[in-house]
TrEMBL record:
The keyword Transcription regulation applies. Residues 1-37, 310-337 are annotated as: Disordered. Residues 19-35 have a biased composition (Basic and acidic residues). Residues 238-306 form the HMG box domain. SMART domains: c-clamp, HMG. It comes from Sinocyclocheilus rhinocerous. This is Transcription factor 7-like 2. Keywords: Activator, DNA-binding, Nucleus, Repressor, Transcription, Transcription regulation, Wnt signaling pathway. Coiled coil: none annotated. Belongs to the TCF/LEF family. It comes from the Eukaryota. Its main location: nucleus. Residues 238-306 bind DNA. It is found in: Nucleus.
Amino acid sequence: MPQLNGGGGDDLGANDEMIAFKHEGDHEEKIRESAYTESDLADLKSSLVNESEISQNSNSVIRRGHQEDQRIYTDKREHLDDVPKHQDGGMYKASYSGYPFLMLPEPYLPNGPVSPSSNKVSVVQQGMHPLTPLLPYDHFNPSAPHIPTDVSQKPGVHRHQPQEISGFYQLPQGQITPSMNWFSHSLMLQSGMHPTGIPHPAIMPPSGKQEHDQFDRNIYVKSHPEAKREKEPKKPVIKKPLNAFMLYMKEMRAKVIAECTLKESAAINQILGRRWHALTREEQAKYYDLARKERQLHMQLYPSWSARDNYVSGKKKRRKRDKQDSSTDPGSPKKCRARFGLNQQTDWCGPCRCVRLSLTHVFSSNTTALL
DNA sequence: TCACCTTTGAAGAAT
DNA sequence: ATTCTTCAAAGGTGA
């Protein structure tokens, strides 16, 4: 099978997907066993009264059950290998737009509609995530202001030598594809650019905080305070490529927010985590596929980049707290159950109610699937 | 202003 | 080889 890297032996994305899917054999079991404590299940069982929810889930369960029946994974690796087969063919060229430079709106292409890459432009709306139109991807906005940045590369370090990646965007170092020519001068002077001349969503300010009014998604522009003391311009930080779950979160966050009228990311992420586990393999595979392509392109664009580059040296930037007993966690659903009980759910905090609803959703799905 | 929360996955470091 | 740690996104929260 042709590899994206030209069969050089670096089977990108394979390992991680093996890891990602190695648990999938116990996917359902994992949901049943680890997603909830026994008390959670008991509580949920005793109060599964949301008819509409159950009804809604029944359909999905039927669908999932059907899919499960049809699934034959004699070899998980074989299944995974199917994905790159697509990208070697037309799918990768036509459907996956990778990073923004691959989905330039036609007016911004040097040759307009007759540009070699114009075939992809038409299917992706400006401002949408290149990997899936559902994702807001506002960082790519040719009209957005940019300030020059220097994405320096460490000399002599080569994580990966670009060789071949789907004819559409082969990017030998220093070579600019025809569809990139429009970047080559004026915009390169204005925008956060990779040395290849490609704007990349992974370029971030050293602070790590996004400032949407100043750089679209990730391209670093100095903030006002920094501008005052820009004597010592900081190098932009190249962010890690998003993994499958992160891509899923980006796509689904708005939906969850709308459903739960929540904005607190911690609670939303809990819900998204549950929903992630509730996805079918095929549904998850879509995101694993996108994530792998993100990594591949990231690697093409920043061959010398290492995740270690973003590690805070010397000290631990963020120390994860020890796993707290959720019963002592003020924001925990258990806490609310303990305090108010299931009969007084109206006293539960919003996040707990929403998380519980989501748990109920997943639980009912899996319970029904077992029946 | 900034760390924390919270999730999963990837990557690198440490053991 | 396995385990541990950090960082990706997001936005509210509290110090």
